Amino acid sequence: MRLSEIKEILPALENVEFQLENGSFVPEHFHVTEVGQIIKKFIDCGGVIRNEKTVSFQLWNADDYEHRLKPGKLLNIIQLSEEKLGIEDSEIEVEYQGETIGKYDLEFNGKNFVLKNKTTACLAQEACGIPAEKQKKNLSELSVNSTSACTPGSGCC
Q: What is the pTM of this model?
């Protein structure tokens, strides 16, 4: 989800709720402690220099159980970050504390924002020697050439 998308969704919501992919929810008294832009410049294993920009939201649970972040407040935080930091419309990455700090992609299911698990991947598979995925075939669909096929008693085996 891009920053522009969350800005379109927030005005129509009564509450801001984040749900993990496993169905559990971020406690409703969470805080958005940071909104920022992360610029990552790196080289992949194939030697290609790459640049990524993401918008980062950091969620944090405090012991103030009466706290509830309203959509208008989050929208104000986003607008302030755009104004003061020059944040661009990029994909959102959410940081949330589990056993360690997890990084998640963000989606919206019509009611809640869903923290989607991220995975790693090789960006230069052809340079790493990772073979292309082989085409899968069902053995029942393979044709048999009867002139070269072994038959019982033919002596080919």
A: 0.78
